[in-house]
Specification:
Elements: H1 9-18, E1 27-28, E2 33-34, H2 38-45, H3 48-59, H4 61-83, E3 88-90, H5 91-98, H6 115-124, E4 128-133, E5 136-141, H7 146-186, H8 191-202, H9 207-219, E6 222-225, E7 228-231, H10 244-260, E8 271-274, E9 288-295, E10 299-304, E11 310-314, E12 318-320, E13 328-331, E14 340-347, E15 352-358, E16 366-371, E17 375-377
Antiparallel strand pairs: 1-2, 3-5, 4-5, 6-7, 8-9, 8-12, 9-10, 10-11, 13-14, 13-17, 14-15, 15-16
Length: 379
């Protein structure tokens, strides 16, 4: 067996010493050789092989540096996409994970002298969202892959469909208003009452007054419409009866439900639960966070309550959170979308809740059965 054979003690010792990451300043990128100390690096720089590589470098240095820069950037972003695709993370953490591979492209062979310059480059080119904090630079990966483009196409298609639905609903509402005006005119009541009711029905802002008038009629003995007495459902009436105004209000409520029902529900300020299977390995599965920002109606930028990390999650991978009885909720979909209310009770069998609206023109109105998906805890 020779002096420097593969299985000699000296060769084995050298391989053990070379195993793992060595100091980066003693690495020659052109020769792809790692030296263990300053003396070894100096000897390598004086070797013929290194001198030949330097001659090659001197013929076209900009092309070689650009090649190393492109490879470094590509490998760095590939690691970012694979390991921190949905999280906001310190740039130093990502860099330390990247250089753990002893065969990586070193930064001292690229056009960037420091990590800060490289991070700013990622921000300028739109590959990452860059933030400077007292704790250092933080980066968030911006996914521009084929899957994201496919989702963006679907969202644009949804937006076009929403515009068509809105136009259709507006036409339906106009037809309902015309029917309401005709029905009110057919009722032979006094001119003052006719004028008053027509204004109340046509004006959406006065819908609360209409409901108040209905409650007042129900609490009385009855009302006279068209010369005929229709008894109400109060204690003084023997049986329940529906008036033309009741039918009109029901139609208005249905039209309001159609106009405010959307296929997107995420909004700022609500507490949601992350249900993404892809984030289970990161520890975010079934964890709660606050929606800080809504991106293109369907994606929420969420700050997790426990870790304070910021994620971007599609609404299909989110779930509404129901607070305790007496808590404040936001109605995120349906006829009263955008209103705040107080949770009065929950019906676990039918997956719905009883909510009383607070503030606004519907202040005090009680909604008997609102589905869990239409309400969410307010942060």
């Amino acid at each position: 067996m020779g002096k420097n054979d593969f299985l000699t003690p000296k060769a084995i010792a050298n391989r053990i010493k070379a195993k793992g990451l060595q100091k980066l300043r003693w690495y020659c990128q052109m020769c792809q050789k790692q030296c263990r100390d300053e003396n070894g690096f100096k000897c390598h720089c004086m070797s013929e092989s290194h001198q030949r590589q330097m001659e090659v470098f001197g013929q076209n240095p900009s092309r070689i540096v650009d090649g190393y820069s492109e490879e470094f950037e590509s490998l760095f972003m590939e690691h970012m996409k694979r390991s921190h695709r949905f999280s906001r993370v310190a740039a130093t953490v990502v860099y330390n994970e990247y250089i753990s591979d002893r065969h990586h492209v070193h930064m001292n062979s690229t056009q960037w002298a420091t990590l800060t310059e490289f991070v700013k480059h990622l921000g300028r080119t739109g590959q990452c969202k860059v933030e400077e904090t007292p704790k250092g630079w933080f980066i968030t990966y911006i996914d521009r892959g084929s899957e994201t483009l496919f989702k963006e196409k679907l969202k644009s298609k949804r937006l076009r469909a929403d515009l068509v639905d809105e136009e259709r609903q507006e036409r339906a509402i106009r037809r309902q208003i015309e029917k309401a005006e005709e029905a009110v005119e057919s009722v032979s009541v006094s001119a003052a009452e006719n004028c008053h009711w027509s204004k109340l029905i046509v004006s959406e802002g006065a819908s609360k007054a209409i409901f108040d008038e209905i409650e007042a009629e129900k609490s009385g003995k009855g009302s006279r419409i068209g010369g005929k007495v229709v008894k109400g459902s109060g204690s003084g009436g023997g049986g329940g009866g529906r008036t033309a105004l009741d039918d009109l209000m029901k139609e208005e409520e249905t039209a309001k439900e159609r106009s405010n029902r959307r296929d997107y529900w995420v909004c700022e300020g609500i507490v949601v639960k992350v249900m993404s299977e892809g984030l289970k390995g990161k520890g975010y599965y079934k964890q709660k966070g606050v929606v800080m920002k809504v991106i293109e109606k369907y994606v929420g930028e969420i700050r997790m309550l426990d870790s304070k990390h910021v994620l971007r999650v599609d609404q299909n991978e989110l779930e509404t959170v129901i607070p305790q009885i007496g808590g404040i909720v936001r109605i995120v979909n349906g006829a009263y979308r955008g209103s705040n209310g107080r949770l009065l009770s929950v019906d676990t069998d039918n997956y719905c809740a009883k909510v009383q609206i607070e503030k606004g023109i519907y202040d005090g109105r009680v909604l008997q059965a609102v589905e869990y998906e239409d309400i969410c805890k307010l942060a």
